Each structure stands twice: as C-alpha cells, then as structure tokens.
Amino acid sequence: MPTITQAPPETSEPLKPRDASKAIKRSSIKRDRFFPYALSAPAAFLELLIHIVPMLLGVWIAFLSLTQFSIANWVKAPFVGLQNFITALDPNGPIGSQFFDALGRTFLFTVLVVAIAWSLGIFAAVLLASKFRGNGFFRTLFLVPYALPSYVTTIAWAFMFNQRDGMVNRFLVEDLGILDEGPFWLLGGNSFFVMVVVAVWQFWPFAFLMLLAAVQSIPNEVYEAASLDGASLWKQFTSITLPMIKHANVVLLLMLGLWVFNQFDIPYLLFGPVSPEEATLISPLIYQQSFNNWNFGVGGALSVVLLIALLIVSAFYIRLVMPKEKSIDD
Amino acid sequence: MIETRGFRILRVFGLAFITLIIVLPLYVVITTSIKPLKDVRGAFEWIPSEFTLAPYLDIWTTVPLGKYFANSMIVTISATILSVSIAILAAYALSRFDFRGARSFRLIVLSTQMFPGILFLLPLFLIFTQLERAVGLQLNGSYLGLIVTYMTFSLPFSIWMLTGFFASMPKELEEAAMVDGLGRLGALVKVVLPVARPGIIAVSVYCFITSWSEVLFASVLTNKDTRTLSIGLQAYASQTDVYWNQMMAASVVVSIPVLAGFLFAQRHLVAGLSSGAVK
After folding, report:
1. What was the ipTM of the complex prediction?
2. Are residues B121 and B234 in the same domain?
3. Which structural domain range is residue B9 located in?
4. Which of A105-119, A179-193, A279-293 has the highest mean pLDDT?
C-alpha cells in the first residue's frame, strides 16, 4: 500500500505547532483506518493458517476413521460419527480406561508439581526480595534450570536415576546406606515420582521469577509497621505477603498449572515415545494413540476432549479465585 | 520483610538448601563431562579419577553433533526472526490503534498461546502429508515444516509480550516524529524500534530459548537429515550402550548458546516475563 510508506504531504512542510497537531489529527483519521489492518495482516494470516485451520481440522478428524490404512489420503477417510469419542471415553474399553487413568494421574501430577514449585518459589522470593551482598548471584543461579534446554536437564536426571550406576542409587545405597539395593527408578510406580522431581526442578524458577517481582512490589513500610506491632515473621508472611501477591498468584497458578498439565517433554525424554503405564500423562497418551498406534481418529477425539477440559478448567479457575480478591485481610 | 536476626539465619540456611538442589545436577553433568570413559563404565563416583577434555572432542564423531547443531540453529533462528518481525507489526497495531476486530484478534492470540502443542501437531502433520501428496511440497521432515510449527508457539507469545512493551512507551514519541515529517511507518521504524530494542531483544532471546529446547514437533517432523539437538541427543541417550561422559559433554556444549543469550538479556527478560504477574 503506497499511502503508508510515503510521508503525508501535510507534515512534509514546516508547520507551526497548532497546525501540526491539526495536520496529524486529520492525516491519522484518514490513514489509521487501513494502517492497523495492514500491520496486523501477516500475523492474522499466520494465526489463521497455523492455529485456526489446524484446530478446526483437529475437531473434524475426531469424526473420521483414521488408521494407518487411511492416513496417507485422509481426505477420503470414512466419517464415523461419534465412534471415536465412544472408543476414547468408554471407561470399560482399553483406551477409555487408559484415558481416565491418565486424566486422574495428570491432575495429581499437576497438583504436586505446582504446589512444590510454588512453595520453593515463594520461599526463595521472600529470601531474595531485600538487597544484600550476593543477591544478584543467587537470583541468576536460581534461574539457570529455567534457562537450560529441558532435554539437557531431563537427560541428566535420567542418568542420575539410572538403576545400575546412577548417582541417586549410589547416594542411597553406599553413601547413606538406607537401602540394600538400588531400585529401578524409571520403571513402574517410581517413574511417576521421578517425573515429579524433574518437573519441579525445571519449573520452580518460573514461580520464583514471577513471585519475586510481586514480593518486591510490596512497600517495606507495611512490614515495618507490622513488626512494630510485634508481628512475627510468619505472621507478616501470612497476613501481609500472601494477601498482597494474590494477583500474581492467580496468574502464576493458571499459567504454571496449564503448562504442567500439558507436559509432554519430560516423560518423552525420560521414557521415550511410550511412558510406563504408571506415568502416562494426557499429552503423551494422545501422542501414543496417534503416532505409535496410528489411530489418529481416537487421538483427535482425545484432543477435542482435552481442549474442552482446558477451556472449562481455566474459566472455572478464574471464576473461583477472582471474587475472593476483595477480602484481603481477616 | 524486616531483616531481623532470625530472618538472616533463615536466609543463610534457605539459600544454601536451594543452591544445593540447583547445583547437584549441574555438578553431575560437569564432572561427568570431564571423566575418562572407564569412570562412567561402572558405578557412579563423585570425583573423577582423572580430568580429561577428550569427551568434548569425541562426541562430535560419536553422534553427528555438528549436523544436529546446524539443524537446530537453522530452524531456531529462522523461526525467531520470522515470529518477532511479524509480531512487531501486529503488536504495534494492537498497542496503538483501536480498530475493529482488535479485541477478537487479541483474544485469539492469548487463547492459542494457552493450548498445548499436541493439539496442533496432529492436524498440522495431516495437512503436511496432504500437501506433499497433492502438490509435492515436502514439509514433513523439512526445515520449512518445522519452522512453521515452531511459530505456533513463538508467534502468539511474541505478539502478546511486545504489545505490552509498546503500550508502555509514550505516544509522544511518534507524534514528535510525525511532526518532523516521518510517516506512520517511518515513525515506527526510525523512532519506536530503536527505543523498543531491549524489549525486542528479550522477546527474541525467549523465542530462541523455547525453540532450541523444543521436543514435541521435532520428534515427529524431523528425519535423519533434519534432526535437531533435542531429538538427536534423546535418541543417543536412550541406547543401551551410552558413553555418558560424552553425552554430558554434549549437554554442556548445547547449553552454551541459550545460557549466553539468557545471561545477556536476563534483566529485560525477567522484567518482561514477570510484568504479567504484577498489577
């Protein structure tokens, strides 16, 4: 659009201040109608191409019979109505029971990881909120797990949790002597526990980052007044710090919760494409159904269920937590 | 909090505890990377029997690390540059103009950012398969296909973060520039972008870090020739016979670009990321 790249004739001559503002006003009214659309067009086009179209297609494939036979030319795959949803959600069927198990497990995983990550994050944020020597060093160090690629740290944890010659078993069996034989950490029920440890280690710095900014925004005078009144550190924390960072907490818990709930990388890097049954989360389950069992229809149906669940959870969450913001002190 | 004696004592022990948690895996990675092979053949030892830098040289031939590195660089840098430049335009429009559709555009950007990659991977994989069949455009296993999928997460994030950044800049900047005879676009390029540079750098670094660490899309959409670091190293680490000292040396090497970027842009990155949490 040539009109955008050229300077408007009104402003190209030297103008007196009053005329100038008039000229801008006139020119911006004329041009502002197209200018924002021209600027947003590439992004809007891409959003359509990589988000909207795939999402609509994702809903569509949930109604198709898509197996390894029909995948190559899936446009011609037969329409099967709600069959994929029935397969995916039948609690007595093999896939349905897997799905409900994975759903419950993913909730437990999310609650555990978010709770521990938040606790570590708020603890570190309170400790580092005031200035002292070495403050900057710890702040940077605590963000390192967040900055490192997740595959680097997850593979390192897998190495440490190795049964035969990993660091963890060496520590438990030889250094502490509390176990006679090192257990297999990456198999069976232990694998869920390992997944929690790795996720907490990777995600808590994010909680720390957000909470530090919130804690630092509390004016010190509030604490001074409270401590003059004889409030203990714990009392100051529960009656000043926590209520005043409520807004940050809402945003953080929502973001971190969704992030952990949708987790794919950590199980994939620890266990490969197929997780142990005791550690299968929702995203990896959809992945397995689609790319290992080549059942894209069922994978698509599970995706649609996940999408709806995510929308409900976030709407419910915001409703549940937001109104309480008014009742700050008790 | 008020720095009482109790608080200071708590701080010393608390920081020591957290430091230990953080440093332990890093210690294992770094010490293992300088161990000779015989040290990683048996049970784990805390101290290397001797120091060697051989793993840092050998890993380049044990796995095609150079190729993985180049693949990751190509995909990551392309996706970052594309996302950030497209996002700058859109974010500027969203922060400066009140236009029809702006609200729904913002809503779409925010909500798509919330959805997990798995929801986009399935349909995009099918679209790529069909495009290849219909017009012969190969996207599965190609750089282009991976770059497009990486934009599914880096584009909405960049738009969202840059919009906040532009909104915090005074409008008088461009108004003055336009009095001086620059057009709207001239004002954006010559006046707004230089001032917004810290924010743009922070967003770019963040996009780089997330793309560099990406696993899900790369696990399906790469092949032998286009494999990125995440999938290449995962494949090597899951073999039965792994040279763990070399594996850990590789981990250190591939962490350097992101750690450098992070330390370089840390201040802006921290401010930008946490701005959403503070009123």
Report:
1. 0.89
2. yes
3. 1-63+242-263
4. A105-119
